[in-house]
Write a structure and sequence with these properties.
Layout (H helix, E strand, L loop, with lengths): L11 H6 L13 H15 L1 H6 L1 H18 L6 E2 H18 L9 H18 L3 H4 L11 H26 L11 H6 L13 H32 L1 H14 L15 H13 L9 E2 L4 E3 L2 E3 L4 E2 L3 H5 L43 H18 E4 L23 E6 L7
Antiparallel strand pairs: 1-7, 2-5, 3-4, 6-7
Helix pairs in contact: 4-5, 4-14, 5-10, 6-8, 8-10, 10-12, 10-14, 11-12
This protein binds protoporphyrin IX containing FE.
């Protein structure tokens, strides 16, 4: 995204739910955003950090398999939505908080998922007060009330986590087990512009990291598997590739992903038809600019409809068909260089978690396809309706029949 559009508009949701726009996603363009984004980048996204966190992703992916293996024993449909959400939630919690914060199905895990789901929904709503400020106080749509109630839940969830850290009384100069919150609590030493981040700033950034990586990756795996269930030959081709590259004597690992070209194409095709953030995050211009001959004033809100771009018949042949083969003979990628496929955005505000998100989605899907034969329960029709918000989850969580295809000792 060109520099003039690198800011974010202010909104009621950003004020209430992003702690006055002090997370990374909704922060206005400037030094605060630059520093916090850099901090996150150093903490999570450098190639070294990605390599160091590899074991977390793989352990959690194999735990998911084990638990699906257990659930499918009765022969009933497996709750895919819960499993993939559990996978991405656990990965992010272990990366951000350096511990297994969410035991599966624990109250804490369910509470977190509910908060994230509502958070993404309310950040995506069109709140009339943002566009016609003088009627904002009326709260005609009731969103302000909902946001305030959610903020209370969010505060109590994050207060608990931060209190645990403050109680630990770590020596930040020597302790090797420091996690992201410990680092944020000691920002004086690593931040150029701010002596200290306030507790609200820390809450905003921490929740950002936990939530941004959880929802986006989980919904993408769920959409991918849904499309595969509707197109069984795609499952056969992907499994054939997994058998050739990995075999059936061991489980797929991150190191196998670059060789799994068909699987990568399935993921790209999923991003094309079901981008997890369909309008990206709203951008705002910082100055008056000309775009394609049009004068655009400063403070213009820009929504990029990547959902429609991905379905545009003038760009894509058989645009509405799920057809991963299209990417086998094309160099189009999701990394922000090819404007016809921008699920992670591009430019300064493009997603810093791209590599982590992409790896998590590819790995999650690879383990699911290698380990189980998937089908739709005979009594059901697969509903592909979307739920509108900042992200685009399935309106109806996916359930499917899983039949193990590896030897028992591998689960
Ligand atoms: C499949 C996975 C993911 C997808 C599809 C995705 C997509 C996106 C998109 C579309 C944006 C907005 C880009 C724009 O407005 O131009 C974004 C921003 C962001 N994402 Fe991701 N994301 C994913 C995973 C992650 C992960 C794993 C993290 C962190 C742990 C993360 C953290 C962020 C942050 C902090 C921003 C805000 C960047 C800024 O405004 O400067 N994302 N992501």
């Amino acid at each position: 995204m060109i520099r003039s559009f690198a800011s974010r508009p202010k909104s009621l949701a950003g004020t209430i739910l992003s702690y006055n726009h002090t997370d990374v996603v909704f922060a206005e363009y400037g030094p605060y955003w630059r520093d916090t984004r850099k901090m996150c980048q150093l903490q999570f996204f450098t190639p070294k950090r990605m390599e160091a966190s590899k074991h977390i992703r793989i352990e959690e992916a194999y735990l998911m398999l084990k638990s699906i293996r257990h659930e499918c024993e009765g022969g009933g449909a497996v709750d895919i939505h819960s499993h993939v959400y559990g996978l991405t939630r656990s990965i992010m919690a272990r990366m951000v908080l350096k511990k297994k914060y969410f035991a599966s199905d624990s109250k804490e895990a369910i509470n977190f998922e509910e908060i994230v789901t509502e958070h993404e929904h309310l950040l995506g709503v069109i709140n009339l007060g943002d566009f016609i400020p003088y009627i904002g106080w009326l709260d005609i749509q009731g969103y302000k009330r909902q946001m305030k109630a959610l903020r209370k839940r969010l505060d109590s969830f994050l207060d608990r986590i931060i209190r645990e850290h403050l109680d630990k009384k770590l020596d930040v100069s020597t302790d090797a087990s420091l996690d992201f919150i410990d680092v944020l609590l000691s920002t004086g030493s690593i931040n150029d512009h701010y002596e200290h981040l306030s507790v609200d700033n820390i809450k905003a950034v921490v929740f950002n990291m936990l939530a941004a990586g959880t929802e986006t990756s989980a919904v993408t795996i769920e959409w991918a598997l849904s499309e595969i269930l509707l197109n069984p030959w795609i499952q056969q081709k992907a499994q054939h590739e997994l058998d050739n590259v990995v075999g059936r004597d061991r489980k797929v690992e991150e190191a196998d992903l670059p060789q799994l070209k068909y699987l990568q194409s399935i993921v790209k095709e999923t991003f094309r038809l079901h981008p997890s953030t369909p309008f990206l995050v709203p951008h705002e211009s910082t100055e008056a600019v000309q775009v394609a001959g049009y004068d655009i004033p400063a403070k213009t809100r820009l929504l990029v409809n990547v959902w429609a771009i991905g379905r545009d018949p003038s760009t894509w042949e058989r645009a509405l068909e799920f057809y991963p083969e299209r990417f086998l003979s094309s160099n189009i990628d999701v990394r922000g260089q090819d404007f016809e496929l921008l699920p992670f955005g591009t430019g300064r505000r493009g997603c810093p978690g791209l590599s982590m998100g992409l790896t998590t989605v590819q790995l999650g899907l690879a383990v699911l396809l290698q380990s189980f034969e998937w089908s739709i329960p005979s009594s059901q029709k697969l509903d592909m309706s979307e739920e509108f918000g900042l992200t685009l989850p399935k309106a109806f969580p996916l359930r499917a029949i899983a039949v193990p295809r590896l030897s028992d000792y591998l689960y």
